[in-house]
Design brief:
Length: 115
């Protein structure tokens, strides 16, 4: 079995840093950090843990910037989402966490209408 390495984008790292800074005084941010930790462990065990996003819906920015020709989403508490792509070679599998976003930004990114 190939080893699975998880890498966070700079944008995702900023969100993690923000959550970490607020988690000492906020239960919501602490809960979010724990959820991200649990979900990344689950993704490491099963790289296809997340729900696949249709190729036609993958933002062009992700295709060009991250070479993300596949995209998966993992649901987090408070309707947040974590988006990741899978890359691989003969030696290892790389899971690249592209974005951690709230529900409103997720809907905007994929063109869903708010109800």
């Amino acid at each position: 079995m190939k080893p699975v390495k998880i890498v966070f984008s700079d944008e995702s790292k900023k969100i993690l840093k923000y959550l970490l800074s607020k988690s000492k005084h906020s239960k919501a941010e602490k809960m979010m950090l724990k959820a991200i930790g649990r979900k990344t462990k689950l993704i490491q065990i099963d790289k296809n843990y997340g729900k696949p996003i249709a190729k036609r819906l993958i933002p062009k920015e992700y295709l060009s910037k991250h070479n993300a020709n596949n995209l998966f989403r993992v649901e987090l508490p408070c309707f947040w989402r974590m988006l990741y792509t899978i890359e691989g070679n003969k030696i290892e599998i790389l899971l690249f966490v592209i974005k951690i976003i709230n529900h409103k930004e997720y809907n905007k990114l994929f063109g869903y209408k708010n109800k």
